[in-house]
Design goal:
Layout (H helix, E strand, L loop, with lengths): L16 E6 L6 H11 L6 E5 L5 H10 L9 H25 L3 E5 L2 H7 L4 H9 L9 E6 L2 H12 L10 H14 L5 E4 L4 H19 L2
Parallel strand pairs: 1-3, 1-4, 2-3, 4-5
Helix pairs in contact: 1-8, 2-3, 4-5, 4-7, 5-7, 6-7
The protein binds thymidine-5'-phosphate.
The site of thymidine-5'-phosphate has 14 residues, from helix 4.
């Protein structure tokens, strides 16, 4: 099993460990995050966060994603909402937890905004740069599968009428390509087509091995 490496720029001057899960819709990322939350439930040093959050900024976003509120018409309109939610999450949750030495396992972060709110790979790189104000993660895990495989999974779960805003083939193809242009070399890629249990176990092993190497 390959271990995830701590990002070079991150981690300095803070006690905790910040691990983020990324992937296109349908990659099983949230299922893996829930598996980890259950597996580590008795460990008070680990906290689980997700974006969009459950804060008012995140609730507003979920309503737009599910078509219950009018959706922004442009990538930039979406970006503003996601950045507002991220600022709230970083201020209220991430920074306090890291300074207390906690391990954060978070579902989606800066790579999601760069990949989802860009219509080409150059813009994705630019959007990642634009988010330097946020603390860098110590480990990035990308759940990898093709947009076709992801869409099949989404439709078998909720039918094509249950899709959310970004869940179309052309959007997922664009988002997947954007991810490839921004994920750092030391990002740990996991085969998301493996059974959910083995994906969850692989992630758990990676996180525990990173913790023991970093002494957190
Ligand atoms: P989820 O399905 O992982 O809960 O995320 C909700 C949707 O929001 C998903 O389609 C990805 C999208 N999203 C963005 O477009 N930009 C972002 O910055 C984040 C965090 C999520």
């Amino acid at each position: 099993m390959a271990a995830i490496k701590k990002e070079e720029s991150a981690g300095s001057g803070r006690a905790g460990l910040f691990i983020v899960l990324e992937g296109i819709d349908g990659s099983g990322k949230t299922t893996a995050w829930e598996f980890l939350r259950e597996a580590l439930a008795s460990d008070a040093d680990v906290i689980f966060l997700r974006e969009p959050t459950n804060l008012p900024t995140g609730q507003r976003l979920r309503a737009c994603l599910q078509g219950k509120s009018p959706a922004p018409e442009t990538d930039d309109g979406w970006m503003e909402l996601f950045l507002a939610d991220r600022r709230a999450n970083v201020t209220e949750n991430v920074i306090p937890a890291l300074s207390q030495g906690k391990v954060i396992v978070q579902d989606r972060y800066i790579y999601s905004t760069a990949a989802y709110q860009s219509d080409n790979t150059d813009r994705a790189v630019e959007l990642l740069e634009l988010q330097k104000e946020f603390p860098g993660p110590d480990g990035i895990i990308f759940l990898d599968l093709t947009p076709e495989q992801a869409l099949q999974r989404i439709d078998s779960r909720s039918g094509s009428e249950g899709r959310e805003h970004f869940e179309t083939l052309d959007r997922l193809e664009r988002i997947y390509a954007n991810y490839q242009s921004i994920l750092p070399e030391n990002c740990h890629r996991v085969d998301a087509m493996k059974p959910a249990l083995s994906v969850g176990q692989e992630l758990l092993d990676m996180i525990q091995s990173l913790r023991s190497r970093m002494n957190v």
